[in-house]
Structure formats: structure tokens, C-alpha cells
Design goal:
9 helices, 6-stranded mixed β-sheet, 6-stranded parallel β-sheet, single chain, 14 strands
């Protein structure tokens, strides 16, 4: 399909929270779509979705579903991606995958367009969309790395329950209502739906996202560590993460400590650098209590940064607060941005 007529785009996982955001973002950003195919599991096939005034019937995702597709956006779980992404590539599509299935594969670029767009030239048909909490952090760190170098990153996250799916958001709402009306309830989803122990998230904080690994870190924490090094091409970068689930519906927050290589850099210089950086909105005015908050980032594509200050003891150390909509920049918008970059760079003809 040529660009003049638009591209044949498929969305896999079209009924999920991220899939829905992908569809809305494609329309909102006026991506040049010639044909839109919506795919899901057999359970959701046959449902009809209204997209920009057009009724589109959801089809079951099968290998033959990708005939004639130019770009396929996947967000239907890792097992689906592993099974169907190679089938889509075989049929000529370029896949942008929002799961962890291919992120650490050495032949698959892991892309945040503000950071490493040029890595798209080295794809073999599948492009991985990073973890939501990784994306917003590297967007904020990349301008700093470019100008001052980067030695160490220690991040603590404050992650929204929507990162665990739409059912987790409903559980947060139901638990909150039960507590306020003093009704009993039974947690069933968080911290990890398949584990035996489930905990209250309303009016609580859970210091676990995904399963624990043998080294004491969770899989989410290891994703942030490994993905940051890969995206920034800094295998020797010192990175550590603690990932925490908060009773917030949408919007991940992060407290990021970082050390740079340059000496005698002020917090104001870091602020000035980020003020004009791509994809970033600086909200940093302590005198007037201006700083990023998840309630104010919902529905926005940008990464919001504030509370930038120098470490008291380490001259090359700084702290900052980073907030973004985890369903948009953390997933759907970054995927659509990658699709836009594929068009811009002439990789998708």
C-alpha cells in the first residue's frame, strides 16, 4: 500500500485498555490509515467498535489475518506476540510489539523515538516497545546523558494500577467503595494475578510489581534495569530500581536519582536543558508548588519532569520527579510514535 492512500494498520488486542488507547491515538494523531484491521482473541471476535464514525468488526487474530498489513501494533500478551508476530512479519508487516516478548532479544531494537530512533534502521520486522516505567525515565535522562554523560541511576517508582490491566482499576474502585462503606471484600488481582497471595490496594501501597526473581528484584525492576542499558547503549551504566504499586488509576510517577560524568553542573542547567527537550514538559517551580502529578498527566502524551535538585552530598548527583500517562507515552503513544518514525525514515514504504 502506498503512502498516498495510507497504510493498512492492524491492532492486535483491540479490546484491551492499551489496544483501545492505540486505536484512539492513531485517530487523534492523524496517522495515515488506508485500512484498519482490529484483532483479538476468539472470545472477543465479532464485537463491533465505532472508530471515528466507522463501525469495525473485531476479527480473531490468526496468521492469515496479517495478509496485506503494513504495520501491526501488538498489545495482547507475550504468548500471542511470540506466536503471531513472526507470522505477521512473514506476510510483509512490520510489528511494533508492546509486550516483553522481544525486548531483550539482541536482534530486536527496543525503541523510544526521543532516545534511539536511529536503531529502527536495524530491525528485522519486529520492534519492541519498552516497559512503561522505563520509557518515561529514559526520555527524561537522554538529554542529560547527551550533554553531561551518565554514570548511575537509582529509581523508585510509584505505579498506577492500570499497568496491571483494566480489571485492576475496577478492583481499586470496588475496594475503595467497600472500605468507605465498611463492607467486606476479597482482593483477587494484585500484586500479581497468578500468585497465591493477593493484597488490598485501596488506601495501601504494594512494594511488588510482577514476580520476584532469584536476586530479590522483581521482574518489573529487572525490566527497567536491563531495558535502560539497552535503549541508551550503555551496558556499563549502573542502574537499580524499586517498583511500587499505588492506589492511582492512571499515571506512573518516579523518583529518579542520577549521577553525571561532568563536574560543576547546577540544577538550573539541568532544568534549562530539559525545558527544550523533545517530549518533555518541565513543571518545576517550588515557590508556587508547581510539580508533576499523575492526576494532571492523564490523556497527555508528554513526560512531565520537576523537583530537579542537586544531591546534598554528591556533587555529580541529582534528583528529579518524573510523571507520565502509562497508557499513552508508556504504551499506546510510544507505539504510534514508532509507527510514525517508520514512515518518516522511509522504512515502511
Amino acid at each position: 500500500m502506498n503512502q498516498q492512500n495510507g497504510y493498512h494498520v492492524a491492532v492486535v488486542g483491540a479490546t484491551g485498555a492499551v489496544g483501545q488507547q492505540m486505536i484512539q491515538t492513531l485517530i487523534k494523531e492523524n496517522f495515515p490509515i488506508g485500512k484498519l484491521t482490529l484483532l483479538s482473541s476468539a472470545r472477543s471476535a465479532g464485537k463491533v467498535i465505532n472508530v471515528n464514525g466507522e463501525e469495525i468488526t473485531i476479527q480473531e487474530a490468526k496468521p492469515e489475518s496479517f495478509e496485506g498489513v503494513d504495520i501491526a501494533l501488538f498489545s495482547a500478551g507475550g504468548s500471542v506476540s511470540k506466536e503471531l508476530a513472526p507470522e505477521a512479519v512473514k506476510r510483509g508487516a512490520i510489528v511494533v510489539d508492546n509486550t516483553s516478548a522481544f525486548r531483550m532479544d539482541e536482534n530486536t531494537p527496543l525503541i523510544v523515538p526521543e532516545v534511539n530512533e536511529s536503531d529502527l534502521h536495524h530491525q528485522n520486522g519486529i520492534i519492541a516497545n519498552p516497559n512503561c516505567s522505563t520509557i518515561q525515565m529514559v526520555v527524561a535522562l537522554e538529554p542529560i546523558r547527551q550533554k553531561y554523560g551518565l554514570k548511575k541511576v537509582i529509581v523508585s517508582t510509584y505505579q498506577a494500577v492500570s499497568g496491571a490491566g483494566a480489571a485492576a482499576v475496577e478492583e481499586l474502585k470496588a475496594q475503595t467503595k467497600s472500605i468507605l462503606t465498611e463492607e467486606p471484600f476479597e482482593p483477587k488481582i494484585l500484586p500479581v494475578s497468578s500468585d497465591t497471595n493477593h493484597y488490598q490496594i485501596a488506601f495501601n501501597v504494594i512494594p511488588q510489581i510482577d514476580k520476584f526473581q532469584d536476586n530479590g528484584y522483581t521482574f518489573e525492576e529487572m525490566k527497567m534495569i536491563n531495558e535502560t542499558k539497552k535503549i541508551m547503549h550503555l551496558p556499563e551504566l549502573q542502574v537499580s530500581a524499586t517498583c511500587v504499586r499505588l492506589p492511582v488509576a492512571v499515571g506512573h510517577s518516579e523518583s529518579v536519582y542520577f549521577e553525571i560524568e561532568s563536574e560543576n553542573v547546577s540544577a538550573n542547567e539541568i532544568k534549562a536543558l530539559l525545558q527544550d527537550a523533545p517530549g518533555i514538559v518541565l513543571q518545576d517551580d517550588p515557590d508556587n508548588q508547581v510539580y508533576p502529578m499523575p492526576a494532571h498527566c492523564v490523556g497527555k502524551n508528554d513526560v512531565f519532569v520537576g523537583r530537579i535538585r542537586k544531591d546534598i552530598d554528591e556533587d555529580r548527583g541529582f534528583h528529579m520527579w518524573v510523571v507520565s500517562d502509562n497508557l499513552l507515552k508508556g504504551a499506546a503513544w510510544n507505539s504510534v510514535q514508532i509507527a510514525e518514525s517508520l514512515v518518516k525514515l522511509g522504512i515502511v514504504k
